[in-house]
């Protein structure tokens, strides 16, 4: 049995999970529409070929190909479903990948600015993108796309960013760089 010890910083509480979610399938809307139309077109073409050329087998060969757009739509659904974001009291963890998995962590004290983007369709559906500008080199801008109740998530992230900065005694310093000292 492997025992894992977590060393706590002075005055900090153990890491706790606060939120878990992923993007809405609305991101795949046009993929689904396009694949449905392509599949329907292939079926109509197959039936049309059978009617126009009854002695030919081309129509029968074309109709099973109508399954390919359905496979593509299913794969798109699976790829988006495999994307998960986990917010804890110390970090945001992003997992992606169906066959091969990738996990990225962003420490909360590195978040510099938070923004919500809500295009019209997202607003009508109660969704939004949470955009985080960070000081992290590998993730200078991290977007959690098409999540429900984005304002509640932003408030949760902001509250925990401030707490992590307080615990780690992290301060952000902005340099203007325009004036020279004589």
CATH superfamily of the largest domain: Pleckstrin-homology domain (PH domain)/Phosphotyrosine-binding domain (PTB)
Shape: elongated
Based on DSSP secondary structure assignment, what is the total number of beta strands?
Answer: 7
- What is CATH's topology name of the largest domain? PH-domain like
Mean pLDDT: 89
Largest sheet: 4 strands, antiparallel
End-to-end Cα distance: 64 Å
Number of helices: 5
H/E element string? EHHHEEEEHEEH
Question: What share of residues is helical?
Answer: 25-40%
Coarse structural class? alpha+beta
- Please list the strands of the largest sheet in the order they lie side by side: 1-2-3-4
Low-confidence stretches: 1-10
- Rounded to an integer in angstroms, the radius of gyration calculated over CA atoms is 24 Å
Query: Which CATH architecture of the largest domain?
Result: Roll
- The CATH class of the largest domain is Mainly Beta
Protein name: Bacterial membrane flanked domain protein
InterPro entries: YdbS-like_PH (IPR005182)
Domain YdbS-like PH: 83-153
Transmembrane segments: 29-52, 58-80
Index terms:
four-stranded antiparallel beta sheet; 182 residues; 2 domains; alpha+beta; PH-domain like; disordered N terminus
Give structural notes.
It is a single chain. The chain contains five helices and seven strands, in the order E-H-H-H-E-E-E-E-H-E-E-H. Helices cover about 40% and strands about 25% of the residues. The protein is α+β, with helices and mostly antiparallel strands and about 180 residues long. The N and C termini lie far apart (about 65 Å). Strand 2 and strand 3 form a beta hairpin. It folds into two domains: about 15-20 and about 85-170, Pleckstrin-homology domain (PH domain)/Phosphotyrosine-binding domain (PTB) (PH-domain like); about 30-75. The strands form two sheets. A four-stranded antiparallel β-sheet has the order 1-2-3-4. Strands 5-6-7 form a three-stranded antiparallel β-sheet.
């Amino acid at each position: 049995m492997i025992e894992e010890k977590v060393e706590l910083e002075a005055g900090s509480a153990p890491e706790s999970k606060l939120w878990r979610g992923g993007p809405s399938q609305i991101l795949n809307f046009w993929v689904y529409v396009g694949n449905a139309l392509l599949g329907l077109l292939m079926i109509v073409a197959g039936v049309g070929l059978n009617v126009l050329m009854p002695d030919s087998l081309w129509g029968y060969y074309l109709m099973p190909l109508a399954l390919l757009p359905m496979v593509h739509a299913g794969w798109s659904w699976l790829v988006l479903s495999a994307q998960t974001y986990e917010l804890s009291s110390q970090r945001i963890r992003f997992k992606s990948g169906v066959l091969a998995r990738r996990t990225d962590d962003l420490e909360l004290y590195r978040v510099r600015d938070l923004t919500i983007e809500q295009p019209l369709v997202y607003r009508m559906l109660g969704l939004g993108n949470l955009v985080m500008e960070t000081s992290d080199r590998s993730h200078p801008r991290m977007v959690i796309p098409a999540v429900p109740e984005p304002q509640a998530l932003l408030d949760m992230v902001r509250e925990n960013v401030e707490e992590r900065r307080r615990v780690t005694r992290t301060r952000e310093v902005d340099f203007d760089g325009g004036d020279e000292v004589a």
